[in-house]
Design goal:
Elements (H helix, E strand, L loop, with lengths): L12 H17 L1 H7 L6 H5 L5 H25 L8 H11 L8 H19 L7 H13 L11 H10 L5 H25 L6 H8 L10 H18 L2 H4 L5 H23 L4 H22 L3 H23 L1
Length: 324
């Protein structure tokens, strides 16, 4: 991986430590504000460790650091960005740090770590003739994640599409994937049935899974915040076609997979808006990877402007959360 000394943000250990320390400072300072904005789920895990507890906030910060390290690992191992850069980590840390409702949601951060692990397993299956083991493991992880959020299972068709893109899809892969899904679901479903016999009613089960919720204008500041993020994202990604020409074929395939995953999540938010809080951390990971590509490779006044507007938007939204 090449060194690029002319970058918008420095790629040094000292700068990285400074950013993480500043993030921790904001995390501690915003504790009273973030508990006010926490969304409770009444889940089994939240009854053990409430999202509003100080310990949950510290765990979530630690998980954010872990996910930031995983982000670096993905970039370097698979050549997503061909130069050494701290930009994706900085973008991710800023997004999570200044979105206060995340600060106690350790389940979303655990899910993000697992999805990043799934991405690495998928990338390792690139043009693999027999990807059944990878497929089974991915589905096993994905279906186990329904104990955090049942809608993660909707990612399964996307996984198959990604296998097709990476030229690893086969009938054996699909069967192994289905077997991986069924294995933990039988246990989870059986346990839930002991608690609620309504699970025998298929219409009740379908009603809970196939429940759609669409965006509304009751939370206008959040919609404006996301709209600006997406606008800046478009300005950055539109530069990619000219820059990816110097990349090898494999990294370009990986970049396409990330774009496909990102597009799926954007569409998913429109039909499953009630689950957005649990899905936003992985959305932010993908956003950081794709948004930072052009900003890491091209140090121009235009890209500097995009980056500074991104910072203003993130910090401004956190101020609105405090003032509510």
């Amino acid at each position: 991986m090449k060194e690029n000394k002319s970058q918008i943000v420095p790629n040094t250990t000292l700068f990285s430590l400074l950013i993480y320390l500043l993030s921790f400072g904001v995390w501690v300072f915003s504790y009273s504000f973030s508990t006010k904005n926490n969304v409770t789920t009444n889940s089994f895990f939240e009854k053990i460790l409430p999202f509003s507890s100080y310990f949950a906030h510290l765990i979530t910060f630690g998980l954010m650091l872990l996910n930031s390290v995983m982000l670096t690992r993905i970039i370097e191992k698979y050549g997503i960005i061909r130069v050494k850069t701290f930009m994706p980590n900085l973008v991710y840390v800023v997004l999570v740090t200044f979105y206060f409702p995340f600060h106690g949601n350790y389940l979303a951060q655990i899910s993000t770590f697992l999805i990043m692990s799934i991405l690495m397993i998928i990338f390792d299956a690139y043009k693999l003739k027999d990807a059944t083991e990878n497929s089974f493991l991915i589905s096993l992880i994905l279906s186990s994640m329904v104990i955090f959020e049942r809608n993660w299972i909707f990612l399964l068709p996307l996984i198959w599409a990604i296998y097709k893109v990476l030229k690893s899809l086969s009938l054996k892969v699909i069967l192994a994937s289905l077997l991986g899904v069924i294995t933990p679901l039988i246990t989870i479903y059986g346990y839930n049935f002991l608690l609620d016999d309504r699970l025998l009613n298929l219409s009740f089960v379908a009603g809970n899974i196939l429940t759609f919720s669409f965006p509304n204008f009751s939370n206008l500041p959040f919609l404006i915040y996301m709209g600006i993020l997406m606008l800046l994202f478009i300005f950055s990604v539109l530069q990619m076609p000219l820059l990816v020409k110097q990349d090898a074929l494999k990294p370009r395939e990986y970049q396409f997979v990330l774009k496909l995953f990102f597009a799926f999540l954007v569409l998913f938010f429109f039909v499953k808006n009630s689950t957005i809080l649990n899905f936003l951390p992985i959305f932010f990971i993908l956003y950081s990877l794709l948004f930072s590509y052009s900003l890491s490779l091209k140090n121009s006044w235009f890209n500097k402007g995009i980056f500074y507007l991104f910072l203003i938007n993130s910090i401004g939204f956190s101020y609105l959360l405090i003032s509510q």
